[in-house]
């Protein structure tokens, strides 16, 4: 996986260097940002803990065979998750 990621990074650099739709300053900045990025391969530790996964998604209701309802439930779940991160008073 690391070889694939490194190959992608190399291709992005080549693409940016050869692009004619951005000036050299933007190319340099984009390339330096790309090289500064940390590529994390794998996931967080909780992803392998079934108890933690159940806790994380306990408020998400899945309805077997109802794709549309499940999509609506996912949207509602994500909105509620974002709302919980907001401060009480704005």
Structure, explained:
The protein is mostly helical. It has two domains: 35 residues, no CATH class; 41 residues. It has four helices and no strands.
Main β-sheet, in a few words? none
Helix content percent band: 55-70%
- 3D shape: elongated
Q: What is the beta-strand fraction?
A: under 5%
Query: What oligomeric assembly is this protein in?
Result: single chain
Spans with pLDDT under 50 lasting ≥5 residues? none
Structural class: mainly alpha
> How many individual helices?
4
Radius of gyration: 21 Å
Brief description of this entry?
It comes from Biomphalaria pfeifferi (Bloodfluke planorb). This protein has 90 residues and is mostly helical. It folds into 2 domains: 2-36, no CATH class; 45-85.
List keywords for this structure.
Peptidase_M13_dom_2; Peptidase_M13; mainly alpha; 90 residues; elongated; MetalloPept_cat_dom_sf
């Amino acid at each position: 996986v690391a070889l694939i990621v490194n190959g992608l990074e190399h291709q992005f650099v080549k693409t940016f260097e050869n692009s004619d739709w951005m000036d050299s300053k933007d190319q340099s900045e984009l390339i330096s940002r790309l090289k500064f990025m940390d590529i994390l391969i794998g996931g967080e530790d909780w992803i392998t803990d079934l108890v933690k996964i159940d806790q994380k998604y306990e408020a998400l209701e899945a309805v077997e065979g109802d794709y549309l309802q499940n999509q609506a439930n996912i949207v509602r779940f994500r909105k509620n998750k974002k709302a919980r991160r907001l401060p009480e008073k704005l």
